[in-house]
């Protein structure tokens, strides 16, 4: 239906920010479409508001279910990375609301708090509409928003926002990793750098957070050996070692390292950079979380 398709990307954006999962967001929007297809459009005064309301309610219900499922997740859980358009920076609030670090902070909110935060802070919906979405009175909705905003402010990490600098550091990180340059990696890292790996039990990845510049550097170089590369590829169903491609792509509003093999993305590494140093590394290798992404470069190259 034309009206629904006009708003599909917006609805995906709402659902993704509430859920942190591309697959779940797409499922929610598909369910919203099914509900919309059974509605007489002539009876809907504001289709956009109606669709946001339906999508948000479905996403809240889905998040409640997902949170219980994530309790048994193998290893650390990270949000699914998304490719963000080059012009996303023109919309600062929308861009910042998909940053990996922020999405992880949103994971610590209740489903209602998260939905209220997303709808207010990212999409600037009036409290009267948000109250209708969550089925609460407007004063209670404002209280939820204030609590969520304070929670996020207290826990949100500070990071560098200069896109060119972030890309330069990401490219240096790729070069040092590919060259096996231990000193080069240590130089890029903050002293207390942390690395969080998400394989979900479906790809070889560290099951615990790794901390410290030397520990993280040595781990990264250890997984870059032919034997460990072969083990990783075998864990995702590749029997031999194909040529690997290394590229930089904008993921979640930040430059990220994208590793591909045989035309499919096999790992995404996103960096949180503070004061010119890499403070946190997010490594996502769970094939279910990156299957929707496109490779970014040819063998060994960067775009």
What are the segments in which pLDDT stays under 50 over at least 5 consecutive residues? 297-303
Q: Would you list the SSEs in sequence order as H and E?
A: HHHHHHHHHHEEHHEEEEH
Shape: globular
What share of residues is helical?
Answer: 40-55%
What portion of the residues fall into strands of 2 or more residues? Answer: 15-25%
Termini distance?
A: 37 Å
Q: How would you sum up the major sheet?
A: 6 strands, mixed
Q: Mind telling me the C-alpha Rg?
A: 20 Å
| Average pLDDT figure | 88
How many beta strands in the DSSP annotation? 6
Query: Which strand order spans the largest sheet, edge to edge or round the barrel?
Result: 2-1-6-5-4-3
Tally of separate helices: 13
Helical/strand content category: alpha+beta
Descriptive notes:
Pfam families: Sigma70_r2, Sigma70_r4_2. The protein has helices at residues 2-19, 22-37, 47-70, 92-96, 100-106, 111-122, 127-134, 138-155, 163-179, 182-188, 213-222, 226-235, 287-290; strands at 189-198, 210-211, 244-251, 254-261, 264-274, 277-284. Strands 2-1-6-5-4-3 form a six-stranded mixed beta sheet. The chain has 303 residues and is an alpha+beta fold. The chain starts with a helix and ends in a 13-residue tail after the last helix. The chain contains 13 helices and six strands.
Give me the secondary-structure topology.
Elements: H1 2-19, H2 22-37, H3 47-70, H4 92-96, H5 100-106, H6 111-122, H7 127-134, H8 138-155, H9 163-179, H10 182-188, E1 189-198, E2 210-211, H11 213-222, H12 226-235, E3 244-251, E4 254-261, E5 264-274, E6 277-284, H13 287-290
Parallel strand pairs: 1-6
Antiparallel strand pairs: 1-2, 3-4, 4-5, 5-6
Helix pairs in contact: 1-2, 1-3, 2-3, 3-7, 6-8, 7-8, 9-10, 10-11
Organism: Nonomuraea marmarensis
Keywords: Sigma factor, Transcription, Transcription regulation
Domain RNA polymerase sigma factor 70 region 4 type: 100-151
